[in-house]
Predict the 3D structure of the following.
Amino acid sequence: MTDRISKEHRSWNMSRISGRNTKPEITLRSLLHREGFRFRIHSSELLGRPDIVLKKYRTAIFVNGCFWHQHVECRYATIPTTKRAFWQEKFRRTRERDQENAASLQSIGWTVIVVWECELSNSASDVLARICDQLRAITTVAEDSRSSRQRLSSGEGRK
């Protein structure tokens, strides 16, 4: 099947697609900021340049587009009919890279949260609640660990 749009026009269309500051990213950043979280965006210090980095919680958040990252069983995760093999390989490599980046971050002690574009359009408040729950769990574990170290250093835990 041939493309119904000229090669030049298709190139122009694709050049307008931004990988940063997308509407879903801005929506999530706004929700997090409103809840009092402070963060950095697109940190080049971490592998994969997470969209949102909450350093205090050692948490990286990736806001994935359903089309580009092929969200499983999502109506937006379509595969173009032209150059199908090209797109399938592109999407396969993107998913593979996502997994590599997440595994790398987790191996150095970071929590990785993936938020899908469709989740933010359908139920942003649910996404925010899920993230807040995960961050609270991280904080609780850190506080428990800190208090255990303090007890040990003060001699409470020794006989």
Observations:
- The CA atoms of residues 39 and 109 lie 18 Å apart.
- The radius of gyration is 20 Å.
- The chain is about 50% helix and 10% strand.
